[in-house]
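[09:14] KT: can someone run the structure on this one? pasting the chain below
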Amino acid sequence: MTNTIATNLTTAEALITRYAKTPIAHLIFNPVAGQGDAEQDLLLIRKLLEPYLNLTIHQTTPEVNPQQLVKAAISAHADLVIAAGGDGTVSCVAGSLIGTGIPLGIIPRGTANAFAVALGTPRLLSVRNACEIILAGQAQMVDAAYCNGIPMILLAGIGYEANLVENASRELKDQWGTLAYLMTGWQILDERKHFDIEIEANGNIYQFTGGAVTIANAAPPTSVLAQGGGQVIWNDGLLDVTIATAESKLHAITTMLKLFGAAITKTEIDERNVIHGRTHQLKVITNPPQKVVVDGEIIGTTPVEVECIPNGLTVLVSKSLSIS
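[09:31] RB: done, C-alpha cells below
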C-alpha cells in the first residue's frame, strides 16, 4: 500500500510539473481492435487515468474515423491524445498529430502493435503498464513521414508486402493473431513476381529489378523486409529503403530469415539479392505498377513519393527508452 501511494504521488507530481494543471486528455478507443475484452479494457483505462487526467473518451465506429476524433481533440485544446487500439488506429491518430507538438500516448491493443514495438516497447505490454507510461509523461521526439501525402509512421511496402496485407483477412487475424501474416505470406510466395524499379533520390536515378520494396520510417524486427540495414532508426531524419529479390520460394524464405537475423543483431545484411540505402526523400516508379501499403492500409499503386518529417511526432514512452 505504501509503495502504491508513493507511486501515485510521484505520478501526480510529474503531471503537475509538466502541465501546471490537470492535463486535458482525449482517448481515441477502438473497441474492435485485438482479441481482448474491450469493455473491461476501457473500464481499466478509465480507472487508471481519470484520477490524474481530465479525460474525454471517443470510440471509433465505421462512421467515425480516428482522424475526425483527433481534429475534435485538437479543437478542444487537448494536452495529449491517447490511441488505444491496433496499428491502424495508432497510425491514424499519430498521422493527425504530426507537426502539432501534442504528445501521443499509446495503449497497444492490436494484432501486431508494430509501432509501439518499433520504439522498444514490449509486444505484450499490458493496458496497466501502458497507462503508467502515459502518466509518467516522458516525451520523445520521433520522425514521421508522408507517402503521397498520406501520413506514415511505420512503413510503405510495394509488391510482396502489399499483397501480403491485402490477402491477410480480418477473420484470419482474429483467429491466429500475428501468425496470420506468416500463414498468408507462405501462401503468396508462390505468386511472387519481379518488376522493374526506378528510384529517384538525392538528384540521382537508380534502376533495379526486385520483388519487394520497403520504405521504412520505423519498423520492429518482425517487419523483416525493412531490415536491410539491420535496424530502422526512428529519429535519424532518414528513411530506410530495402529492395529484395528471390529466385525461388526457398530463396525467399532464407532471405527473410537472414533479414530477421540482421535485425536481431543490428548489423547490415550482406547479400547480393538485398539492396539497402537511406535517404530523406524519394520517388519510386515501377513497371508494371504495383500495389502500395502504408501502415497496414492499401493506398493504391505506384508511383509513390515519400518524405521524412524529422522529429515530426511527440510520443510518450517509458523512461528507459527515452533518448535525449
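[09:33] KT: thanks! Residues 1-9 have pLDDT under 50 and may be disordered.
[09:34] RB: yep, looked fine to me
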